[in-house]
Amino acid sequence: MKPVDQTQFAGEGVGGDCVRAATASILGLPITDVPHFLEIAPEPRLWGLAFEDWMEARGFHVWLKHGHLPFEGYYLVSGPSPRGVSHMVVYKDGKLAHDPHPSRAGILSVDWTRILVPLDPAAAVHIETEGL
């Protein structure tokens, strides 16, 4: 995981890009390589479908669970932020690993857990061990 900070915030344009920044962080990508899902979705409320389609095209299934499902490793969670807006952050082993907002305040509670599951586990092992 390579921490990436969001570049757009709630109240600006179509909305903040915490999903984009958290996704870039967990995948180790520059933020410019990840779309702002609120902007590419047919309607902002359908951002989740755009996110899942984008992840699938990159070899990942998004396992979505309501509530918190602690997971060993990095995963995405979303819920209310102290700023009063919905927010996405990166967790690892059940705890906050990176909040892409400059406040680093995290979220107040976990409403949704998103675990990125490789469609081809053999490729994921290859990617993980390449850097060793």
From TrEMBL:
<protein>
    <submittedName>
        <fullName>Uncharacterized protein</fullName>
    </submittedName>
</protein>
